[in-house]
Amino acid sequence: MDSILENLFSDRYSISQDIIDLSRKKEEELSDIFKQIEVVRDFNQLKVLSAMQKEGISDRHFAGSSGYGYDDIGRDAIDRVYASAFGAEDSLVRSQIVSGTHCLTVALFGLLRPGDELLAVTGKPYDTLDTVIGIRPGNGSLAEFGVNYSQVDLLPDGIPDYERIYDAVNEKTKVVLIQRSKGYCYRPAMSLENIAKVVDAVRSKRKDVIIFTDNCYGEFVDIKEPTQMGVDIMAGSLIKNPGGGLALSGGYIAGRKDLVDMCGERMTAPGIGKHVGASQGACRSILQGFYFAPHIVAESLKGAVFTAAMFESLGVECNPSSREKRSDIVQALKLGSPENLSLFCKAMQAAAPVDSYVVPEAWDMPGYDDKVIMAAGAFVQGSSIELSADGPMTPPYIAYMQGGLTYINVKLAAMTAACEYLRKN
Ligand SMILES: *Cc1c(COP(=O)(O)O)cnc(C)c1O
């Protein structure tokens, strides 16, 4: 049976026989890792299913509302389904949240007040938060509203510096920010165990600090979420993991009810909060996407593991390595030269279902010092639960890839990239 696929790889996609052989060997070696991913997937699938059954999800929840969206039963049911699956008291899931950055912004502005301090404890947060926090000047940043910022860097091995975190928490600290995913840093994603240790370090100094997690790319990678590890509130994007590739836009905030309410007041208006907002036609795809999310996350994880294994065999350093335990869906590959980074992204693009004919080129992007090359061939614009890869054109030329709605598509992309890599190196 395998030969049917192998013929297609060589005839249709011009993959060389040595890469086909290597990929067969790698898949055999990875079977135990794939099994572990499937166990997590099945556990999370049943968790989501149970949340939907408890809520009594039915066709009436898909209808949507218009205008103010009073009594929108679909919207309110989605909030409860997310909360239940994530072990949180409440949640705010909205298609009107335009991106992950917007979602984190709603949460930070919802929770922080003038004179408060925001303390990032996993190093500098994701790049797009620079202008939100005021690390770089941003019109309307937290800094402009008198919110101070401080930061504790990770130790060189990417582990939180628990002692310095303890020391940094002071009487002004209002929110502690943990970023789970590596984002665009070459470091391990924060494991749930380490998140729990950060919580302990913070709480042993002060019980009342709000611990907030940027959970982007982390959902359903493990059997629990940060809100089940002592974190008060977390946020993420629906065009990443929890949207399952079907949600067309949106973000979620989940956690303690009083805190989610504060975020709701910021998202709409003080006094109005999360009780309005027309879901229009979004409920069905948000719910169906959430239902698919554990499966889709598993597909993308298998794709990431396979890609790492292939490139490790070709001598490329990968983070995480193929056998390491994961806490996000991001795969970083240290490709070593601009040509390699470029060929990798081109192969990812060529393997995509959408815009496969487009050839990505490095370009100057606002907010970045170096040129950046990006590959994305997605049904939903900017969706990075779909196969995507990018990297700054600077040494050591790291590609960050994530997503893939089906494992076989990521496998094809990795084989194409490996084939090109072998040809050029
Ligand atoms: C993607 C991401 C964000 C920002 O999300 P956008 O949708 O790109 O605005 C923030 N933090 C982390 C860790 C992310 O992965």
Kindly describe this structure.
The chain has 425 residues and is an alpha/beta fold. Helix content is 40%, strand content 14%. It contains twelve helices and 13 strands. The chain has helices at 2-11, 17-29, 31-55, 73-85, 100-111, 130-133, 162-168, 192-205, 257-267, 283-313, 338-350, 407-424, and strands spanning 90-94, 117-120, 148-151, 173-179, 210-214, 233-237, 251-255, 317-319, 331-334, 363-364, 371-376, 388-392, 398-402. The chain has a seven-stranded mixed beta sheet, with helices on both faces. Strands 8-9-13-12-11-10 form a six-stranded antiparallel beta sheet, covered by helices on one side. Helix 3 packs across helix 4, helix 4 (73-85) runs parallel beside helix 10 and helix 5 (100-111) packs across helix 9 (257-267). The model has no long low-confidence stretch (mean pLDDT 97). Residues 99-101, 126, 128, 179, 181, 183, 214, 216-217, 237 line the site of pyridoxal-5'-phosphate.
Q: What is the residue-averaged pLDDT?
A: 97
CA gyration radius, whole angstroms: 21 Å
* DSSP strand tally: 13
Question: How are strands sequenced across the largest beta sheet?
Answer: 1-7-6-5-4-2-3
The dominant shape is globular
Coarse structural class: alpha/beta
How far do the termini sit from each other?
32 Å
